[in-house]
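[audit] Reproducing an earlier prediction to check determinism. Same input, same settings, fresh worker. If the tokens differ from the archived copy the diff job will pick it up downstream; this log only records the rerun itself.
[audit] input (208 residues):
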Amino acid sequence: MKRLAIVGAGGHGRVIADAAQSSGWTTIDFYDDAWPDTGASTGPWPLIGDTLLLLARLHDYQGVIVGIGNNHTRAALQQRLLDAGAPLASVIHPAAVISRHTQLGAGCAVFARAVVNVGARIGAGVILNTGCIIEHDCVVEDFAHIGPNAGLGGGVYIGRQSWVGIGANINHLIHIGRDSTIGSGTTVIRDVPDAMVAVGTPARARPA
């Protein structure tokens, strides 16, 4: 039996649970500090309790993942779990396509039809959402989020905790700084510094 604990029982967490079930995890439990009622449920998966309870029960699980979409919150919770010795797991939907010649950090969520090509390096706690494309030799740093159907050309760099919106396209060799946001449907043809918001086609950047 493979048991997975997911911290965060919202919509993103449930998508992780569905991907985990499809990829062979047999038992999936939720923990969420916002919904502390033990015995409640979210869809077919039980909500057991809060994070403190999970920390006391880590020995019951072969894997733990943070199912929260906010990049900064996910980073803080994953560090807390890591410090407690949690067995961090990545969840990869079986319909994702990941080259064997890539690196994937701990605690990542990779959803259906995501593609990661040769030479890419994906950091810890990254979300690769449904249908996104990470081309060859890209770097996606820790706790970034690549939105559904977004595309990164070859050699793109995405900084830590940055967010790339739904359907955004980033041209090859572009550098996106840390803590930046690329708006949905945006086309990026120039580098974006740290802590910026870029929107439009072509993208125009402004301070976040």
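[audit] rerun output stored. Observation attached for the diff report: The first strand starts at residue 3 and ends at 7.
[audit] end
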